[in-house]
Amino acid sequence: MRLADRIAQCRTPFIVEDTKDKRQTRLVGAADFADAISACPVRYCLSDDLVALCCALAYSKGARTLECADLLHVPAERVWIEWCEAPWINELARYGFRTDAGAEKIAGRRGAFVQTSPQGRQGLIKTFWTCGETDLDVLASSMEAYFDFDAADGQDPLAPDGRNRPAISVLDLTKRSADILRCFRFRYERSWDDYYARARVPLEQRNSIARHALGTIAIDIPVLLVFFLLLAARPGLPRRPLILERLNQARIKSGKAPLLEHIEVSSPLLPEYRPSSSLESSGRHRRTPRLHHVRGHLVRRGSQLFWRVPHLRGSTRSGVIRSRTVTWTLEHPVGPRITANPS
User: Fold this and answer.
1) What residue segments make up the domains of the chain, in order of their start?
2) pLDDT tens track for 161-193
3) Which long-range contacts (CB under 8 A, 24 or more apart) does 222-225 make?
4) What is the pLDDT of residues 51-99, one digit of tens each?
5) Which residues pair with 97 in a beta bridge?
6) Which DSSP category does 249 fall into?
7) Distance from C-alpha of 185 to C-alpha of 181, rounded to nearest angstrom
8) Residue 107 pLDDT more than 90?
9) Contact predicate 79/114, CB 8 Å
C-alpha cells in the first residue's frame, strides 16, 4: 500500500512514556496528518527511475542544483510526494552516503507533505516513512523544514507561522549548495519542541538527538527540490493520473477503506550517448583521449538547464583511466593523511 494511503488510514496516536515516572505524552505523529493527506489536492508518486535521476542531480559532485533557487516553485499550495526507499538508498550509497548493509531489502516508502504560499516560494515541509506493516510503523519526522526561495543573503528565512522558535541551519562544506543555508531552516515540531524542552538531558545528548532528527528530513530536501525543478522544466515529466473510482467501489463493498487518487510521475527518456566524431570530420589530428568516466552534472544557461548524464568517453586504444582519485600518503606523517581529488 502506498504511504499516502497508510497515513490517511492511520488512527494510532504517537504516545511516549517516561520510564521514570510513567508519565505519558502525546506527540504529533503520522495519524495527525491523516485528514491533511486525504484532502491534499495534488499527490505525486515517483517511479524508481525518476528517484534515481533526482538523486543523481541532487548529490552528484558535478551538480549545482540549489543554485537554481530562482527557478524553483512548488506547483500547488498543498502537495504530497512519495517514493520507494530502495532505489533512493542505492543512489545514496553510490554518492558516498553511509547506509546500513541490506537496508534496501527491508526498505519501505518515504514521503513529504509540502504546504506553501500561493506563489509556491515560501512554505513548510514535513517528511514521513515506513519501517513495518502496522500503524506504529508509519513515522513522521519530529523536525520540520521551512523555506523561502526569495530570502536574501545574510537574512534568515521567515517561519510561515511567524513564530521564532529555535531553528537549525545546514551548511554544505563543499560550498556547492549555499542556497540550502540561505533558503532553509529546520526546527522541531511544536509538540516535540516542548517535549525536549521539559526533558532534562545533557547538552551533548541533546545535540546528538537533534542531529539524528535532522537526518530524517534534511537528506530529502535536495531530492524534493530537483523534482520541483524538473516539474517546472518544459516539456516537464511524463505523468499518468490514476483514477481509482472502480477499484474503490469494490473496496468499499468489501468493507475496505478507499485508496487515494494520485499521479504517477516517471523519468523522461534520456538519449543514448554517442561519442562525438567532430574531430575526425574536421580533419584535426589530435590524440584520442583515454577511456574515462564523465560524471553526471547540471549545466544552467539562463533559464535553460542541461543534465549531462554519466557516460564513458574516449578510446581503450589510448589507455584506460581506472580512477579519478589520487591519494598521497606520507611515509612518516606529522598530521592527518593528505588526499587529493583532482576534478
Assistant:
1) 3-265, 278-340
2) 777 788 888 776 654 445 566 789 999 999 999
3) 222/58, 222/59, 222/65, 222/66, 222/177, 222/180, 223/51, 223/54, 223/55, 223/58, 223/88, 224/81, 224/112, 224/114, 224/125, 225/58, 225/65, 225/66, 225/72
4) 988 888 887 765 455 567 777 889 999 999 999 998 898 888 887 787 7
5) none
6) H
7) 8
8) no
9) yes
Fill in the DSSP letter of residue 277: -
Alpha helices in 233-335 (DSSP H): 245-253, 278-281
CA distances from 235 to 223, 226, 232, 249, 298 (A): 20, 15, 8, 35, 17
SS3 (DSSP) at 217: coil
Chain CA centroid to CA 241, Å: 23
**259 alpha carbon, distance to own chain's centre:** 25
Grid coordinates representing 21?
515516572
Question: Please, what is the angle between helix 85-94 and helix 48-59, to 10°?
Answer: 30
**Helix crossing, 203-215 with 190-198: angle to 10°?**
160
Spatial CA neighbour of 30 closest among 123, 124, 137, 161 = 137
Q: What's the CA gap between 258 and 278, in Å, rounded?
A: 58
Contact call for residues 217 and 125 (beta carbons, < 8 A): yes
